[in-house]
Structures are given as structure tokens and as C-alpha cells.
Specification:
The chain is an alpha/beta fold. The chain is built from 32 helices and 26 strands.
């Protein structure tokens, strides 16, 4: 009679980079051991308690059972398609032809991946182990939920299995193999359960938010245990047979090694132990910050959402960081993620968070900068793009200056949000609620952090709806949230707060009327929205708004005559005091093309100004990255906050910055005069924050710019022949035409009164969106036209909201035991849609300059050659150098053309392979320095950046 089936140690789990295949049993043990170390070091006490309570287990049993589950994640590697990937090992396994049988061709069923095999096999094994569930109600079966969860460790949850698929699994999935394969899976299952001590059986499954937390831990445990260096450190000698004694010995080695692996990864927990505002920042709090410091700690009883609304320049960033400390400490959060609207604003915020972390936090403070070009950002430690291979964890420095530097492991692909601290673009966080691979890992990365969102007003309907869904999940996690906004309507504020409350389990709607400036706090444990608090502003002023109706001649040739009543004439009149008496001005344009032409026009109108160093600057997005960074740095130095009394002893010399909307957000710039194209009211108020932003006193401003607390805002309103607001065709869909008309009408109605900041702001923002706005228009034809525009806007917004709702994963309360809802894409939802902002149409180009000898270089002077790979891929330094010369352009520029072929090795780099290379040649006529033909259009690059004729 045959004895019990013995564990077959020839079944391998890891092979790449190893001297010989690593038994799958060893990897299961390693992963379980690392999970235990993560449970101890990474989870909060609250999270551990919630996981245990959800399973109806005590803490010790919960740790053992969940560690057992983590180890099981790769049980599906005991299957023909996976084992056949190492032919020699597979041949040895089947040396006895009767052993390890499978249906013909099953070993070639590569589409049946090992994580899918885990899902299929574990559903039955867990049920046989006594886990609750009825296959007729699969979504409610604990056995199936655990199997589906572990099958998602490669980033995508499988579909719910049918009862017949579980009962007759090999008939549906021949890749599972025959009886011997099933027996070995059962033996490995039983042996892992024995070693981990996971005899307890959970009575219930996990709610969606805790299932996501567990998924994240399982993925991290797998990744840490899969590092080559980690495996080599515990790898048994050849001939290891997997006897119970040998398994026990390996388990002890793995348990001893696991804490160092976790510590070396820098995952850890930051601690918010600094209490006083003055200990966090080198200055006393202003009115907003002081009110938060006085009142917020008494309201906070754990997690919650804080909404801060205040004018640009009122210290919202420091208020947010202080509030994050209060909320993080109360909720026991492990860190913070600071989300911003653009890469440039994220780059600017990074050093401020570094300083905050060094002064106000203790514990593990590894900080990552997250956006597509983070490794190019000034001030961020060089690392270059990575293919996701983990570096070996070594001894880490934890002194003051390096404690915030994220190491190689955290800089690996998909790992940035796992760091205790992060700064990045908001889309990095929003990816967590899109059905992208490893979205659950992103959710886990945010689940126990304070989530700070700057410029919460800056997102359109698509992004807003995604943020609403993310807030639902954060509410369910009990993660603290801080939202910052310069302008926010009551309706928008309510939608954000209600989403968080829904996630926390409070489904009745709230009504929120935010104070301006002020703040409002919502308690996650009770759902209570505290009474909004209004605070005084230390920067009260009255905007001198001058609405100037103009005919639109922005794209007229700079050498042409100036027409009366046009934009060019208005610009010359507005800038004359700056040119003649000194001072600074910002000219904010709607499109890049109009900014480039405006720069040329001002240069022609005021040649002496343009000739002086720093007299005339241009800033927009369509420069190569290194040039944009240089211009931004120059602008911050020239127009930034005064650093000494000498800076305000006299007015600044005449200087004009022409820019696009890139100056609206998070750039600390201060101008004596602001001239701007018409924009929706919220954007105009945001731009107005750059007008006389800092106190320079009577000596630091030109006489025409006094008094300092009445900054001048000249708004250039495009009008048609009848004098009605009419957006130029060149603006396309940048702004909604109806909002432009509403804004112009509102500004015109307040002519001579000015706009009190902050006193009038909230009322004006609510008024411009008010449903009864039309009732205040006397002209019936205007009412009819605006009603038509409003209807079109509402239809477009509804379409974006619907698409966002359809695209995003469901809320936590709608998962209903089926984790596949977090991975399922609706028909028509493409990867492109998921990874770009709705309506965004952009490409990336690299200008290569043809020298006289025909060679191509990265620079005009011919000093920087185009690097090629000597082996399989370019060095990180070469990639970084190339990307510093890349510029974004509209996608329509690149249709129908074919660029320069990629140099050798560039196709191996994910950041280089999609670049369009433009072969630029010296251009004639003096308008552009270099040009090329691409798809029937001419693309030029000069001192005004990239441009084309359309």
C-alpha cells in the first residue's frame, strides 16, 4: 500500500539569476516569513486589529493565518505551464513517464498563468480545509475570496469562478495538470499550514478595503522575498529534499532574515511626533495657521477630512503640513502623500516636504518624488528610470540629511507610493481607482497615509469625479485627507466631503458652505461635519480689475501696424508704466502660440526693454525640459519673495514675463502688474494671487503700483463686432465659452468697485456658477445665447462625469465580495484612456540638430552627441541627458509623419521608445533658428520654443 505523498522539492519557484532552481516550497516559506515581518513593522495597530476582527480571529492567529495565505500566493507554480519554463528541471520531474501527467499540450498553455492557477486550485483546497462557503454562492465563499485575492498578486484579480469550474477544474483548465500535480499542491498547502501554525479558520471574509490592504502586503512580501540576494542568503544546498525537518530549518532561516529585508526596503513608518507649529517651521503662524493650531487638535478624534480654502499666498502649504501632522498623529498614519496638479508644481513642493520631514517627523522618512519625469527633477537624488529590478538592501544611513532619501528598492517600478512619504502629481494617486494593473497596490500605498491634495479646484469634471471615487476609498480606509483650494464652490466642496463620508459609512448627504478664507473638518468616525471656521487674512486687498474689451489680433505679425482697439494696443498701453518707470509685469496668455507671438510683439514694441538682460522673458510648456527648468528658476529668482531689506529698498528694474497658465499654480511669483487674457473667474482669481503677492512696501514698488494693497489686474476681453464676449478660434476648447461670458458680465457689473480679497471671493465664485445667473441679464438675446452655452457645458460635463464613473473602479461598498470589480474594464475603455487626462492630446519630441558634417547632436552647438547603446540598453546617465532635451507638443503635430529612426538601444528603454525624433536643420529668414518638415507641416524651434504654423 502506498504511503502518504511526500513533498517533491524538485518543483521550482525561482530560477533567474540563481545557480540552480529554487524550490517553490522555499519561496512559499520566504514569502510567509516576510509577511510576518511586514505585519509587525508596516501595519498600524488599528489595521492589525481590523483585519483580525474582520476574520473573527485573535491577533496572533490572524498573523499566522494571513502569513499562511501570503505564502500560498505562488502555489499555482505547481502546474505544467510554469514548470515547463525550465526544460531541464521539467524533464527531470517527468523522468518517470507515469508521473505528473497532463492533457496533451497543457504544458504549452502559457496564457494560463501561475497566479490564475493559484486562484483555481486554492478555491477547492481552502474549502476542503474547512473555510466557510457554498460554491453555489461563490462571492460569499471565504475560500473563493482568499483564492481570488491571492490570484491577484500579479496586479489583476480574476473573475469569479462558477461552481462547476471548481468541481471540474482540470476540464476547464488543463494547465492545472493531473492527479500528481493536485497532490503536490495539497502537500505544499498542508506543509506550509503546519509550519506557519495557521490551523485557525476564519469565520468571515474581508471587506473590500481590507482585502486591498492584504493584497498590497502579499505583493510586497513576494517582491521582497524574490530578490536574488535575499534568495541566495537562505538558499539550501543542492539535494535539499523538503523533509519536515529541512522545511522547519528553512522556515527558521527565512524568519530570521525577513526583518532585515523589510528594514532594508525603507518601507517603514514615519511618526508625527512634533506638536507645535513653531517647532515645524522657522516662522510664527499667520491667522489661518494659528486658528488651525488652536482649534483643530480639539476636533480630531482619529481620521477625518480637512478642507482649507484661502487665497493664493496665505500659507496653505504650511497649514496643510501642520494639519497632516495633527491628523496623522491622531489616526496613527504611517506617512503622507502630497498630490499636486502638475510635474513642475510637484518638483517645487518636493524640497518643502523634505524640510518638513527633517524638522517635524521621526522614524522611517524615505521620500519619493512621483511623476513620469521625476528622475530629471532638480534636487531629487539621481537614480534614473528603472526596469523594476530590485537592488539589494544594504545598510542604510538614517542621519538628518539622508533619512528622507528613498533607496533603490523604493525607486523600483510601481513602488514609489509605498514609501512612507511622497510628493507627486495627482494622477499618480488617481491611478489607484482606475482598472490598471497593480491598482490595488496603489490603493494600499495610500491606505494608511495622510493624503494632501493641493489646488483641489484645478481639475475638470473627469478628474474631479475620479478624485470623488478615490476619496470614497480613503474614507473606507480611515485615511486622513487634507484638501487645499484657492477657490471652490459650495457644491464642489460638498461633493468631495460627501464622497469621503460615504466611504466611512455615512450615506446621508451633507450641506457644506465653505468659509473664505477658512476651513472645515469632517470626522471619519462619526460623519459629523463641524461648523466651518472663517479666519482673518493677513493679506486683505482690493483688486483693481480693469476689463478691457479688445478685438483679437494676438497672432498678428510683430512688424505690422497696430490697430486701434486691438489686444496689441491694449498691451502696449498697460505695459508703458513698467517700461518707462520700472517695476515688473506678468502677461498671462491662453495658448502657447499666442504667448510666443505676444513675446515677439512686446520685443518689437519695447526693444530697449528686450535688450536688457532679464527685461523680457517667456515661459510655457513647449520648451525642452532643461530650458524650461532654467527659465523657471530665473523667474523665481527675479520675481520671487524678497530675501532681505535690500530687495525692497527700491523698485525692481523694468521686467516683463510672458507666460501661459503654467504660472497659475504653486510658483511663488510676485509682480507689480498683471495683464491677462479673459479666463473663467476662478482662474483669474488664481492668477491675481501673483499680483503684489509679497510685502515690498512703498520703497519696493514703483509709484504707479501704489498703494500696494490695490493690485491692478488688466483683463483683456475678446469681443466680436457687436461688443459681445467671443472666445477666439485659436483658443479651441481651452475654456468654456459660457463661463467666459458669465465672468465678463460679472466683472463688468462690478466696474469701479474692485474685488475684495478674500471678502468677495466665495460669493463671486458661487455666483458665476449660480443657476439663477441668467435671471439677472436684461438682454433677452444674451439670455438665450448664454442658456444655449450653459446647456452645452452641462452636457459636456455630464458626459465626462459619466465616462469617469464608467471608467473608474467601483466604490468599496459596491465590491460585493467580487474583487474582479477592481480589475474589470468596461467595453471601449482603453489603456490610453486610462493613463491620460480626458481630451489630452500630446506627444513628446526630441530635436536632433544636423551639423555641417551631417552628424546629429542633442544641442545646437554640436557638443552633445546622440548616445547609442553599447550593449542592450542605454546607461541611466545617457537616458537622463536625452530626456532633458525632450519637449511636449500637441499630438496633432505628429500625425501623418515619420521621424528620425531611433538610435541603437533606444527601443529597450520605456521612456525613449515612444519619442518622435525631429531632424532639425538651420532655417532661413531669421524667424526660427532650426526647422524640419514633418507630416506636411513645418516644425521650428527657436528662442521662443517649439512652434508650427497652424
Amino acid at each position: 500500500m502506498d504511503g502518504p505523498v511526500q513533498l517533491d522539492a524538485r518543483l521550482w519557484g525561482k530560477e533567474r539569476g540563481l545557480p540552480y532552481p529554487y524550490p517553490v516550497m522555499c519561496h512559499l516559506l520566504d514569502s510567509a516569513a516576510v509577511f510576518g515581518a511586514l505585519w509587525d513593522a508596516l501595519l498600524s495597530g488599528r489595521q492589525r486589529a481590523e483585519l483580525a476582527a474582520a476574520l473573527d480571529l485573535d491577533l496572533d492567529d490572524a498573523r499566522r493565518v494571513l502569513g499562511f495565505w501570503a505564502g500560498l500566493h505562488d502555489l499555482g507554480k505547481i502546474s505544467p505551464p510554469f514548470q515547463a519554463q525550465v526544460p531541464t528541471a521539467f524533464a527531470e520531474l517527468r523522468s518517470n513517464t507515469a508521473a505528473y501527467a497532463f492533457a496533451s499540450g497543457a504544458e504549452r498553455e502559457r496564457s494560463f498563468r501561475h497566479e490564475q492557477a493559484t486562484h483555481w486550485a486554492l478555491t477547492r483546497l481552502l474549502s476542503e480545509a474547512g473555510y466557510p462557503g457554498d460554491f453555489r454562492r461563490m462571492r460569499a465563499a471565504v475560500s473563493h475570496q482568499v483564492a481570488q485575492l491571492l490570484g491577484g498578486h500579479h496586479g489583476c484579480y480574476g473573475t469569479v469562478l462558477a461552481a462547476k469550474e471548481v468541481t471540474h477544474a482540470t476540464s476547464y483548465r488543463p494547465g492545472l495538470g493531473g492527479e500528481d500535480w493536485a497532490e503536490q499542491r495539497a502537500v505544499h498547502f498542508a506543509e506550509l499550514r503546519r509550519v506557519t501554525g495557521a490551523s485557525a479558520v476564519p469565520k468571515r471574509g474581508l471587506p473590500a478595503e481590507l482585502a486591498v490592504v492584504l493584497t498590497g502586503l502579499v505583493i510586497i512580501a513576494d517582491w521582497l522575498a524574490s530578490q536574488t540576494e535575499a534568495i541566495l542568503a537562505v538558499m539550501p544546498e543542492p539535494g535539499w529534499r523538503g523533509t519536515p525537518g529541512e522545511v522547519d530549518e528553512h522556515w527558521e532561516r527565512a524568519r530570521k532574515a525577513a526583518p532585515a529585508l523589510v528594514a532594508g526596503s525603507q518601507l517603514g513608518r514615519a511618526r508625527f511626533e512634533t506638536h507645535c507649529f513653531e517647532d515645524m517651521f522657522p516662522f510664527p503662524p499667520n491667522a489661518l495657521q494659528a486658528d488651525l493650531a488652536k482649534e483643530l487638535p480639539g476636533m480630531v478624534n482619529g481620521a477625518g477630512l480637512l478642507l482649507v480654502t484661502a487665497p493664493t499666498g496665505d500659507g496653505k502649504t504650511e497649514a496643510a503640513l501642520y494639519a497632516a501632522s495633527v491628523l496623522g498623529r491622531a489616526a496613527g498614519a504611517r506617512g503622507m502623500f502630497f498630490a499636486l496638479p502638475t510635474m513642475s508644481t510637484a518638483d517645487a513642493m518636493y524640497p518643502r516636504v523634505v524640510a518638513f520631514a527633517q524638522d517635524a517627523l521621526v522614524g522611517d522618512r524615505a521620500l519619493t518624488l512621483l511623476h513620469h519625469m521625476a528622475w530629471l527633477a532638480p534636487g531629487y537624488s539621481p537614480g534614473g528610470p528603472t526596469d523594476g529590478e530590485a537592488a539589494s538592501p544594504g545598510e542604510l544611513s538614517a542621519d538628518r540629511t539622508t533619512a528622507t532619501e528613498a533607496g533603490a528598492w523604493l525607486r523600483g517600478r510601481r513602488r514609489g507610493l509605498l514609501a512612507p512619504l511622497g510628493v507627486g502629481t495627482v494622477d499618480q494617486a488617481l491611478g489607484a481607482i482606475l482598472p490598471l494593473d497593480f491598482n490595488a497596490l496603489r490603493l494600499f500605498g495610500l491606505s494608511d497615509k495622510v493624503f494632501v491634495v493641493d489646488e483641489a479646484h484645478a481639475y475638470g469634471p473627469w478628474m474631479h469625479q475620479l478624485l470623488v471615487r478615490l476619496l470614497e476609498w480613503l474614507g473606507a480606509f480611515g485615511a486622513p485627507v487634507v484638501l487645499l483650494s484657492a477657490t471652490l464652490s459650495g457644491r464642489t466642496a460638498t461633493s468631495l466631503i460627501d464622497a469621503y463620508r460615504r466611504g466611512a459609512g455615512f450615506f446621508e448627504a451633507a450641506s457644506v458652505a465653505p468659509c473664505y478664507p477658512g476651513w472645515v473638518f469632517t470626522d471619519a468616525s462619526t460623519g459629523v461635519v463641524h461648523a466651518p471656521r472663517m479666519v482673518a487674512s493677513g493679506r486683505e486687498r482690493v483688486l483693481d480689475v480693469q476689463l478691457r474689451p479688445v478685438s483679437w489680433d494676438a497672432m498678428a505679425d510683430a512688424a505690422s501696424s497696430v490697430r486701434g482697439g486691438g489686444r496689441r494696443e491694449a498691451l502696449r498701453e498697460a505695459l508703458t508704466p513698467v517700461v518707462s518707470e520700472g517695476g515688473t509685469a506678468l502677461v498671462c496668455c491662453t495658448t502657447v502660440a499666442e504667448a510666443q507671438q505676444t513675446f515677439r510683439d512686446i520685443r518689437a514694441a519695447f526693444p530697449l526693454l528686450a535688450a536688457r538682460e532679464g527685461g523680457l522673458r517667456l515661459l510655457h510648456s513647449r520648451y525642452p525640459a532643461h530650458l524650461r527648468q532654467r527659465i523657471t528658476a530665473e523667474a523665481e529668482a527675479a520675481y520671487g519673495k524678497p530675501s532681505s531689506a535690500d530687495d525692497t529698498a527700491r523698485p525692481r528694474p523694468a521686467s516683463v514675463l510672458v507666460a501661459t497658465q503654467v504660472v497659475e499654480q504653486s510658483l511663488d511669483l510676485d509682480f507689480d502688474l498683471l495683464v491677462t487674457d479673459l479666463a473663467p473667474l476662478a482662474q483669474l482669481l488664481q492668477r491675481a494671487g501673483r499680483a503684489r503677492r509679497h510685502a515690498r512696501g512703498d520703497t519696493g514698488r514703483p509709484t504707479w503700483a501704489l498703494p500696494e494693497d490695490a493690485p491692478r489686474l488688466v483683463v483683456l476681453e475678446p469681443v466680436d463686432e457687436d461688443g459681445a464676449t467671443s472666445a477666439p478660434r485659436t483658443w479651441g476648447s481651452v475654456y468654456d465659452a459660457g463661463l467666459l461670458r458669465r465672468t465678463a458680465h460679472l466683472l463688468r457689473s462690478r466696474a469701479g468697485d474692485g474685488i475684495a480679497v478674500p471678502g468677495d471671493v466665495q460669493e463671486l465664485v458661487d455666483t458665476v456658477y449660480a443657476e439663477d445667473f441668467l435671471e439677472h441679464l436684461d438682454d433677452a438675446s444674451q439670455r438665450d445665447e448664454l442658456q444655449r452655452m450653459d446647456a452645452e457645458r452641462h452636457a459636456n460635463e455630464a458626459a465626462e462625469i459619466h465616462l469617469a464613473t464608467m471608467t473608474a473602479v467601483c466604490g468599496p461598498h459596491d465590491v460585493g465580495g467580487n474583487l474582479h470589480h477592481l480589475s474589470r474594464r468596461e467595453a471601449g475603455v482603453t489603456e490610453e484612456l486610462l493613463t491620460t487626462r480626458l481630451g489630452a492630446d500630446s506627444g513628446r519630441v526630441l530635436c536632433l540638430y544636423e551639423q555641417q558634417d551631417g552628424s546629429l547632436t542633442l544641442d545646437e552647438g554640436g557638443t552633445l552627441g546622440v548616445p547609442e547603446a553599447t550593449r542592450s540598453a542605454l546607461a541611466a546617465a545617457d537616458v537622463r541627458n536625452v530626456m532633458a532635451h525632450v519637449a511636449p507638443v500637441p499630438g496633432r503635430w505628429l500625425r501623418g509623419g515619420e521621424g528620425q529612426p531611433l538610435p541603437r538601444g533606444w527601443d529597450k528603454s520605456p521612456v525613449l521608445r515612444d519619442l518622435v525624433l525631429l531632424r532639425m536643420q538651420p532655417a532661413d529668414g531669421g524667424r526660427a533658428a532650426w526647422a524640419c518638415q514633418y507630416g506636411g507641416r513645418t516644425i521650428r524651434i527657436s528662442d521662443v520654443g517649439l512652434e508650427t504654423d497652424d
